[in-house]
């Protein structure tokens, strides 16, 4: 079972990955956007980390909804409301349980990712964060490895592969879509940060 401490570890590991890779995320966004994705997420996840310390959440659901609210209130760019919706809706789907199973988290994340698709109007192949998030949710939703190990590492691999697979795509949503065919040949910043989020899930499970 996954307790509140697991979810705090997940969010903290995501914040650390964003700090580590902020320059890369901004560099990717400078090729097909406005060069702020790293600093947007840095601002957002620093606020998340601060809030987790100031008002420690009592449940897994509360941890994710708190993080989602902070991202929405601190990140001005498209990614703030989108990641905020992802975490808020995933948290809401977990309800007020003190512990949740990996299967319940997989199902809740599916709901959260669907909410991102609805809010942003994007679908798989549009060269957005969904190109990493949807394969991750698929990997989490399929049967767990027979040896009893967790599906999180497979989800992390699926998300990283999904992010890489955005390189040859043309963007159909967000700022990158303004470039038309010139968006081809660059990795999507949001798909790249989504891969960090899912990798952090695997990290939190290892600890
Ligand atoms: P902004 O584009 O407002 O500067 P960011 O640079 O922080 O915001 O985030 C850009 C990322 O947001 C993109 O790389 C893409 O993955 C994601 N994104 C943008 N628009 C959408 C959308 N409509 N649906 C899903 N993801 C989107
Ligand atoms: Mg940007
Ligand atoms: Mg911007």
TrEMBL record:
Pfam families: Dak2. InterPro entries: DhaK_L_YcgS, DhaL_dom, DhaL_dom_sf, Dihydroxyacetone_Kinase. Keywords: Kinase, Transferase. Residues 5-203 form the DhaL domain. Transmembrane segments: none annotated. One of its GO terms (biological process) is glycerol catabolic process. GO terms for cellular component: cytosol. It comes from the Bacteria. The keyword Kinase applies. The keyword Lyase does not apply. One of its GO terms (molecular function) is glycerone kinase activity. PANTHER family: TRIOKINASE/FMN CYCLASE, TRIOKINASE_FMN CYCLASE. This is Dihydroxyacetone kinase subunit L. It comes from Streptomyces paludis. The lineage of its organism: Bacteria, Bacillati, Actinomycetota, Actinomycetes, Kitasatosporales.
């Amino acid at each position: 079972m996954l307790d509140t401490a697991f979810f705090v570890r997940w969010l903290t590991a995501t914040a650390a990955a964003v700090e580590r890779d902020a320059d890369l995320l901004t560099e990717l966004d400078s090729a097909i956007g406005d060069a702020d994705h790293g600093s947007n997420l840095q601002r957002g996840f620093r606020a998340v980390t601060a809030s987790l310390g100031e008002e420690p959440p009592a449940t897994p659901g509360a941890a994710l909804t708190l993080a989602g609210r902070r991202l929405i209130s601190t990140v001005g760019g498209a990614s703030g409301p989108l990641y905020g919706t992802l975490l808020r809706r995933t948290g809401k789907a977990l309800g007020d349980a003190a512990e949740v199973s990996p299967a319940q988290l997989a199902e809740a994340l599916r709901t959260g990712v669907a909410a991102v698709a609805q809010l942003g109007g994007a679908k798989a192949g549009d060269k957005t964060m969904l190109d990493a998030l949807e394969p991750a949710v698929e990997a989490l939703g399929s049967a767990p490895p027979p040896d009893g190990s967790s599906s999180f590492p497979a989800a992390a691999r699926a998300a990283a592969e999904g992010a890489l697979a955005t390189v040859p795509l043309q963007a159909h949503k967000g700022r990158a879509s303004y470039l038309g065919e010139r968006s081809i040949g660059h990795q999507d910043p949001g798909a790249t940060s989504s891969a960090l989020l899912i990798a952090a899930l695997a990290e939190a499970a290892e600890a």
